[in-house]
Amino acid sequence: MTLQIFSSLSRKLEPFTTIEPGVVRMYVCGVTPYDEAHIGHAMSAIVFDVIRRYLEYRDYQVIHVVNFTDVDDKVIARAATIGSDPLALSSRLADEFLDQLQALNVQPATVYPRVTQTIPEICAFIEGLIAQGYAYAAEGDVYFRVRADADYGRLSGRSLDEMLAGTRFEVDPRKESPADFALWKAARPGEPAWPSPWGEGRPGWHIECSAMSMKHLGAQIDIHGGGNDLLFPHHENEIAQSESLSGQLFARFWVHNGMLQLVNPETHQVEKMSKSLGNVVTIASFLEQYDADVFRLIVLSSSYRSPLTYNRDVAADNARKLERLLTALEPATGVLTTGDSVDALVRATTEAHANFIQAMDSDFNTAGALATLFELVRAINSARNATVGGEPFRSAQATLRELAGVLGLRLQPSQRAAQDSAPFIDLLVEMRTELRKLKQFALADRLRQRLSELGVTLEDGPQGTRWKQQ
RNA sequence: GGCGACGUAGCAAAGUGGUAAUGCAGCGGUCUGCAAAACCGCCACUCGCGGGUUCGAUUCCCGCCGUCGCCUCCA
User: Distance of alpha carbon A439 from its chain centroid, rounded?
Assistant: First the structure.
């Protein structure tokens, strides 16, 4: 069984192979930092983080490049409205996003290139295209000559004729064809600009990814990723630029994640997350309320290619899911190391491992992989009830941690209990234990109830009372 | 209008040409002084609707309905 990945280019599952054995070159389109990042951006980052972690688990070395488009129309427009310098704005937001990725347990990419740091390579790229007849300069702008690219449209399944027929925006008279797109834009007053062979200006939207990919990963890469909203025109144009320049296939696997969608709890209508609808959930606001693992579980629960449903209920459900995963990591209560219960646990552990790999090998079926983790959870909890302990028990827990780790789950019990309140809670629990010994259940129950109202949950077990703080 | 994806229990969501994982919620039980947690059992005679192919389809094909994405900036 080998890893199968769905490629948007062929629209089918393909066995995964790499250009260089054992090495994966992966370029993922990052964000344009012009406003606060929301959980849709987080979803994309997590999808590719899981892909990367799994590839590494399968012993590939992954060179992972994620860009920041830190200068473009939106950045400039947003900066103008808030009276900020565009590059200062995008730089601040990019750094903020990197902090949030860390909070989400997303492994740092190998490189995070930015457009503003890639200007010379971009200019060289454009010069190469012009030299080969794939681009032309016009009054300080440079355009890609789509007509010169014979197979333009093969990623998105559109023909050039269709696109021209469907043209419904004003055509810039300097373009030879309406489908041509800007590689370089001449500077307008007050905008960030860099010197170039065509005068002061800045890169167009698509060229930066081609240039950064080329710079950091070479002419050919194994995986190119991004949201499926980028399929056209962004990725189509990247292919056009990169393959026209190099004459080689650009990316072998095109991997696209679906969009995060909101279901309005009142109208039950599906809504896209957008500022105009006022339904944006920022990464920061999510993390204020929930553990990072909760969001990751939401993402893992469905296929990365499908739309992802998000609402408050989904968040709450997944918070409970996390609780359940954590129960399996609680310590053993016995020391049994032989017998049927032990055998069952060992068998379940082996099966979980095998089923996990089988699921992930099938185009990163994280929902199926999660299901195997929950089966292991049940086996571990059953074993604990049967007083299994020692090495077999620890080994099963280690497998659970290992596999969860491949999905990027931290599985840390919530540590919100303030250090200084712990001794007092311990004291109350101790007093309650005394009351229970004296059969003073009314008082004991009242203590438990009051603590619960304060967010402290008590669980009486054979080993004594455990408490958790929410 | 064009291109593409999807429609599985109350919710979320896997999956397969031979009769449906998993999680949450719910119900019954074990345990407990009572709870909680855990565990055991139950919970889709059915996979949008209508045709077709097949011995047999939720799974393949066609049509219809519905939802979503892209076609303009977007992870």
Answer: 53
